[in-house]
Amino acid sequence: MISLTPGAPRAAKLTALGIGVALLATACGGTTTPGATETTTPPPASGISCPAPSGTSGGTATATAGGTGEVPPSATTAPTPLKLGSLLPTTGSLAFLGPPEIAGVNLGIQEVNAAGGVLGHPVEVIHRDSGDTKTDIATQSTTALLGSGVSAIIGAASSGVSKTVINQITGAGVIQFSPANTSPDFTTWDDKGLYWRTAPSDVLQGKVLGNYMATCGAQTVGMIVLNDAYGTGLATNVKSALEAAGGKVVAEELFNEGDSQFSSQVDKVIAAQPDAIALITFDQAKSIVPLLTGKGVDPTQLFLVDGNTSDYSKDFDPGTLKGAQGTIPGTFAKDAFKQQLLTLDPALKDYSYAGESYDAVNLIALASEAAGSTNGVDIAGKLKEVSEGGEKCNNFASCVTLLRNGEDIDYDGQSGPITFSDAGDPTEAFIGIYEYQEDNTYKPVKEEFGKL
């Protein structure tokens, strides 16, 4: 780490967060590397030292996928099978999120059908690519899915992409159910009650990240931010939490989707000499991280988010990210769940939003059973009901057994506790904090629970 300039001790005070984040443990993402002749003043070493983890798991989400005994047949047979679409990224700047999300959907479908399906039929699924906001792939894929007669579409992962298709989907009377959208804008969107998500709004992730940087001793923070609904929304909430904890954002540099040169943003952030740097990006981090570390920024000063907390073992030299940390909404993926996903996709390396995708399938299937219908509007009318107030259950087989026996259910899944607001948002969630290792892969450090 670069030399610390004389100054006050780096101890940031904590203040209570307005959304009620409760800490469950004591601890807690230009394309060329700068040449040797370039001179940019690096930030002073901050003495950042995050509290040591007290454990690597927390929370109550202990769902065990699979059945719990013989499932009674449905008393109602729908005239047509429940058909789902997925709109998840296999290309574009969030393509690394596609494989775990698609595997989560496929595992959910597999288990629903192993338990006898929904309303007398196996559930069908059609997968389509969402691309990113640089292309029109999402619109084309959505048109194809709606033409296939789907009742619900799981996706998109990107908030920016979802904004391009949400009116098209919900206007057709079809549910849009995202496992990864975190923009606060969707909370008040005029979606006719048809937009739902298992990922919490970035009001929560932003509060957790801003507060966490303060607990690590960062009094000043620089940010490099993707200029879209996801990036600016998350940055606003990070800044608010940091300032509430006594810190200050001293530089906030924006870039646009499709940009490939980031030297200007990097130089301006470094010139502000922040204690820590938050990268609120997608895969642009592959270009930005080497620029920062090449100019003397220690990786322990870097904080990533769900859009870029990924496996970089094949992208960077060993040690490039050692000690950097990132946040991902949702509880840590359990080993048994990972093994089940790997049977479907042995090449998986990331598990981000796999649980949220799996839960989306289960919730839609259970709401369809509760409604006795495969119509999108009817299913949406039961989604909140199956997420709260009844007997706890955590997989399709056990939950649908209760439903068919006339019981009220409260589904909690692989992503953690799920209770929907009237707006279709989770009202409580975990945010996982991860730390990068020598090989540029990341491991869980702690979880924080919050209510919205």
Notable traits:
2 domains, 15 strands, five-stranded parallel beta sheet, alpha/beta, 452 residues, 11 helices
Put the structure in a nutshell:
The chain is of the alpha/beta class and 452 residues long.
Count of strand segments:
15
Largest sheet: 8 strands, mixed
Distance between the termini: 37 Å
Q: What is the mean pLDDT?
A: 89
Which outline best applies?
A: elongated
Order of helices and strands: EEHEHEHEEHEHEHEHEEHHHEHEEE
What's the level 1 CATH class of the largest domain? Alpha Beta
**Based on helices, strands and strand pairing, what is the structural class?**
alpha/beta
List unreliable stretches of 5+ residues.
1-41, 56-68
Cα radius of gyration in angstroms: 22 Å
Strand arrangement in the largest pleated sheet: 1-15-14-11-10-9-7-8
CATH topology of the largest domain: Rossmann fold
CATH architecture of the largest domain: 3-Layer(aba) Sandwich
Give the helix proportion (percent range): 25-40%
Strand content: 15-25%
Q: Can you identify the CATH superfamily of the largest domain?
A: Response regulator
Helical run tally: 11
Number of domains: 2
